[in-house]
């Protein structure tokens, strides 16, 4: 289980970095985001998303499953944060406090400018922002990474 877990953790990180910086319209809408927003997002989330993979590798190298459990728990927290950011506004009409930290705009404004014109497969619920396909894929990778990392931890 170590290899699939590591592949998923790295795939999620690489997918995040590519979709943050590379214009893949209509999957993402990098062209309508500010460079400073992309850099801030990558600078904050990139290292956080890399840490579970580092912990998993260290756990295997040092025969310390507790590190893999920590990595899996951290990946689960990352998944919870992403799901809260995207699904609470859609399902409950509630925005998490960190949704637009440091940008000076509301989640609705940021979503309208950068995500509303991307591939979205979910039906509308009033005027609430909808999770786009780009983030549904990312969150799936992260969630699977958390599950596989916890399973890998149990097998170390």
From TrEMBL:
This protein's name: Uncharacterized protein
Highest taxon of the lineage: Bacteria
High-level lineage: Bacteria, Bacillati, Actinomycetota, Actinomycetes, Micromonosporales
Naturally occurring in which organism (per UniProt): Rugosimonospora africana
Sequence intervals crossing the membrane: 6-24, 44-62, 68-88, 136-155
Swiss-Prot/TrEMBL keywords: Membrane, Transmembrane, Transmembrane helix
């Amino acid at each position: 289980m170590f290899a699939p877990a590591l592949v998923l953790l790295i795939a999620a990180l690489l997918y995040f970095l590519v979709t943050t910086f590379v214009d893949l319209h209509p999957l993402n809408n990098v062209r309508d985001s500010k460079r400073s927003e992309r850099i801030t997002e990558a600078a904050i989330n990139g290292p956080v998303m890399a840490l579970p993979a580092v912990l998993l590798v260290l756990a295997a190298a040092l025969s310390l499953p507790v590190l893999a459990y920590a990595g899996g728990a951290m990946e689960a927290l990352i998944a919870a944060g992403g799901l809260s950011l995207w699904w609470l506004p859609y399902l409950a009409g509630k925005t998490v406090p960190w949704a637009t930290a440091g940008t000076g705009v509301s989640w609705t404004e940021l979503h309208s400018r950068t995500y509303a014109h991307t591939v979205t497969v979910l039906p509308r619920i009033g005027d609430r922002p909808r999770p786009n396909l780009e983030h549904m894929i990312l969150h799936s990778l992260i969630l699977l990474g958390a599950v596989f990392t916890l399973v890998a931890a149990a097998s170390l």
